[in-house]
Design goal:
about 180 residues; mainly alpha; two-stranded antiparallel ribbon
Amino acid sequence: AKYFNINHTLSIKISHLQCVDYTKKFFNTFLNKTTIFRFNKFFDDDIKSALANLKTRSSAGSCGIETIIFKECSESLKYPIKSLFNQCLETSTVPDEWKEAVITPIYKKKGSRQEIDNYRPISVLPPIAKAFERLICDQIYLHFESHELFNVGQFGFRRGRSCELALSSMLDGWRDS
């Protein structure tokens, strides 16, 4: 529980930044939007949705319970899992088993197969950990979106912000210049 503790209150504050002008402007904007973040308790529908949206072909991970079990039994499992997830939020802890991954080395298709550096690790977490992670991620993402904490120029890992939109924005900027 010491590696991935969840803190109920996250105060975003940055000071003494030595940055280039663009970064300074971004962080000044960011500092003016300092806000308090708190995780919200999960509801039955949150849990059911998170379980139902797990990828069926995903591996069971270290727990040995196939993803399809969580998906097919989401209606029955939503109550005990909701209680478990909310307890994780209340106690700021995550079960150690959720942090155990099955790691498979995948050859990068370059260099000698005898060299460990020519492999990349693929980590597979248990399905319940993936569902919890998705719900936590959604709350953090929503907080950042609703408080406009993302830089307007960030396109990666944002919903509705495709590569095509990034390219179009960049071309518009060049055209305007």
